[in-house]
Amino acid sequence: VVGPGHLLHATVGQEVVLPCRLSPSMDARSLEIRWIRYLVSETVHLYQNGKDLYGQQMEEYGGRTEL
């Protein structure tokens, strides 16, 4: 996964898009994509088998992320 390569700035409460892409380019629908804070148990967002699994994310991120 490749990110933008520069800092993104936001203020509290502002919506932010965190751009990224796969290199080499491929279809990600069949992949597991897990965004974590520090530990694997600290899931911010989980995408698996073509679906967002919101029930697996930390409570404080509920309704705040999408892929």
UniProtKB/TrEMBL annotation:
Compartments where located: Membrane
GO cellular component, one term: external side of plasma membrane
UniProtKB keywords: Immunoglobulin domain, Membrane
Molecular function per GO: signaling receptor binding
InterPro entries assigned to the protein according to its UniProt record, in alphabetical order: Ig-like_dom_sf, Ig-like_fold, IgSF_BTN/MOG
GO biological process, one term: T cell receptor signaling pathway
The protein's name in its UniProt record: Myelin-oligodendrocyte glycoprotein
Organism: Gavia stellata (Red-throated diver)
